[in-house]
Write a structure and sequence with these properties.
This protein is an alpha/beta fold. The chain has 2 domains: 316 residues, Glycosidases (TIM Barrel); 89 residues, Immunoglobulin-like, CATH 2.60.40. The protein is 25% helix and 25% strand. The strands form 4 sheets. The protein has an 8-stranded parallel barrel with strand order 1-2-3-4-5-7-8-9, surrounded by 4 helices. Helix 4 runs parallel beside helix 5 and helix 7 packs parallel to helix 8. The longest helix is centred in the middle third of the chain and has 18 residues. It is globular and about 75 Å long.
C-alpha cells in the first residue's frame, strides 16, 4: 500500500539532517607565500640562499646595538651604535624580495636601567619608525615587534616600555605594523607575557605574537613530538590566544613568530646541561615544519616564522634548528621550498578530513580560481606510519600527484586510482602528498 506521508516524512528528516550536519571547516586567509616566514640574524643571513623557502623574514635587532646601554642616546640611523649599517642590511633584503619584521630585543633592559623610561622608549620608537618605516624613502621594514621573550622583565615595566615605544612608532609612521612580544593567553612566564598585560592598549598593536614548540618534555630531554599530537599544547596555546583575541582584540592578527624542531647528526654530549637532550631526525624536522604550515593555515594563523635559518649542528636545544647546516640545505630546506613553490599562490579553503591519528586532508585554492585546487593528504602521526586510504570523491579530475621531497631534484610521483564510489585511493604517510585537481566551471 502506498504511504506518501511516510515518504515525505523521511525526505523531511533527510533535509533536516543535512542542514544540521556541519560543513567541512573553512578559513579565509592569505595565500601561503604571504604567511611563510623564517627567523634570521643580521649579517649572518644570506638572502639569496633562502629565497626558495620564503619571502618573509624576522630579524633579531638588538636595542643595545642601536643605543648601547644609554637609553637616552639618540640613534644615528642608518648606523647602529656598533656601526652596523641598517640601510645596507635591510635594503639588501628588500632588493632580494623580502619583507622584514624587526624584533627589537629589549629583554634585558630592566626598569632601573632607563634614564627616563617613558621618554626614552617613545623617542626610540619615533626615530625607528621615521627611518625604517614603509612611509619613508627607504621603506626598509614593514613591521616591528616590541620585545622577544621579555620574561626577566616584570609585567608593569614591559607594559610601560611597550606603550610608549608603540606611541612613538605610531607617531613616526602609522603604516609600520606593530607586533607584541611572545604572548600567552594565560599568566606571564619566563618566555611570554600574559595578554592581560596589554589590556587597554589594543589601538597600539596590529598583531599578537606566539612562540610555540612541540615539547613532550622540557628539561632534561627537551624531546619534541609531531605537530598534530593531541597530547601537546603546541596548537592549543595558539588557539587560546586566538580565542582571547576574539573577545578582547577582535580584528587583530595572530602570528606564530617562532616554531621549529632540532635535527642534529650528532649524539648528545656525555656530560653537561644537554647530556640527555633528544633531537628529531632530519626527516621528522622536514615533515613537521611543512605540516605545521598547513595546520596553521587551517587555524587562521596569518603568519608563521620557522626558527631557525642556519645551524652549526649542535646537539642541544635550538642548536640544530636550521633549514641549513653550515649554509648547506638540509632535507627540511627542500621540503619547505617545495611547499612554497607548490602552494605559494594558493590559500587554505577547507578541511575535508581531520581525523587524529589517521588522516588529514585539506583543500587549497589558487587565488579566486574556483577550478584550480590542490588537495594535501598526510598521516598526522609521528611513528613512520604509512597506509592506503580512501579519500572522498573529488569535485573534479585529479591531474597529477606528488609527495613532499627531502632532497633537491626530482619529486616523487604518487600513484592513485579511482575507487568504485568515485573517491580516490592512494598511499599516505607522514610526508604530505599533493593532488592537483581541475574542477570544471559552471555549465
Amino acid at each position: 500500500m502506498s504511504r506518501p506521508w511516510f515518504v515525505l516524512a523521511v525526505l523531511w528528516l533527510m533535509v533536516v539532517a543535512a542542514a544540521d550536519a556541519p560543513p567541512p571547516r573553512s578559513v579565509a586567509g592569505p595565500v601561503l607565500r604571504d604567511s611563510m616566514g623564517l627567523v634570521v640574524h643580521t649579517v649572518l643571513f644570506r638572502p639569496e640562499l633562502y629565497r626558495p623557502v620564503c619571502r618573509l623574514v624576522r630579524n633579531y635587532h638588538g636595542l643595545e646595538w642601536d643605543i648601547g646601554r644609554d637609553t637616552n642616546y639618540a640613534p644615528r640611523f642608518p648606523f647602529a651604535r656598533n656601526q652596523v649599517n641598517w640601510e645596507e642590511l635591510y635594503g639588501g633584503w628588500r632588493e632580494s624580495g623580502y619583507e622584514t619584521l624587526v624584533c627589537v630585543v629589549l629583554d634585558d633592559f630592566l626598569a632601573g636601567e632607563w634614564h627616563d623610561l617613558a621618554r626614552d622608549a617613545y623617542a626610540y620608537g619615533l626615530a625607528f619608525a621615521r627611518f625604517f618605516g614603509p612611509s619613508g624613502t627607504q621603506r626598509l621594514v614593514e613591521a616591528v615587534q616590541i620585545g622577544n621573550e621579555p620574561g626577566l622583565m616584570d609585567d608593569a615595566t614591559y607594559r610601560e616600555i611597550f606603550e610608549h615605544m608603540a606611541r612613538g612608532i605610531r607617531k613616526g609612521d602609522p603604516r609600520l605594523r606593530i607586533v607584541t612580544c611572545a604572548a600567552t593567553a594565560g599568566p606571564s612566564h619566563r618566555y611570554a607575557k600574559g595578554l592581560s598585560t596589554l589590556e587597554g592598549l589594543e589601538d597600539l598593536y596590529d598583531a599578537i605574537a606566539v612562540h610555540t614548540y612541540a615539547h613532550v618534555e622540557n628539561w632534561p630531554t627537551w624531546r619534541r613530538s609531531y605537530p598534530e599530537d593531541p597530547a601537546l599544547t603546541y596548537l592549543t596555546d595558539v588557539q587560546a590566544v586566538q580565542e582571547w583575541r576574539d573577545v578582547h582584540a577582535p580584528g587583530k592578527e595572530v602570528w606564530v613568530t617562532e616554531f621549529g624542531w632540532d635535527a642534529s647528526t650528532k649524539e648528545a654530549l656525555p656530560t653537561g646541561e644537554f647530556s640527555q637532550w633528544v633531537g628529531s631526525t632530519e626527516t621528522e624536522q622536514a615533515q613537521y615544519l611543512v605540516r605545521s604550515f598547513l595546520v596553521f593555515s587551517a587555524m587562521g594563523v596569518e603568519r608563521a616564522y620557522i626558527f631557525w635559518f642556519d645551524d652549526q649542528d649542535e646537539p642541544q636545544v635550538h642548536g640544530s634548528s636550521g633549514l641549513t647546516r653550515h649554509y648547506q640545505p638540509k632535507p627540511a630546506f627542500h621540503a619547505v621550498a617545495h611547499l612554497h613553490r607548490t602552494l605559494g599562490e594558493y590559500r587554505f579553503a577547507r578541511a575535508l578530513v581531520e581525523d587524529a591519528g589517521d588522516l588529514y586532508l585539506y583543500e587549497f585554492r589558487r587565488g579566486d580560481d574556483e577550478g584550480d585546487r590542490i588537495w594535501v593528504a598526510w598521516s598526522p602521526t609521528g611513528s613512520g606510519r604509512e597506509r592506503e586510504v580512501a579519500l572522498p570523491r573529488p569535485p573534479g579530475a585529479v591531474v597529477r600527484a606528488e609527495r613532499m621531497p627531502l632532497a633537491e631534484g626530482a619529486v616523487e610521483p604518487v600513484q592513485w586510482e579511482s575507487a568504485a564510489d568515485g573517491g580516490v585511493r592512494l598511499v599516505v604517510n607522514e610526508s604530505p602528498a599533493y593532488l592537483w585537481l581541475r574542477v570544471p566551471g559552471p555549465g
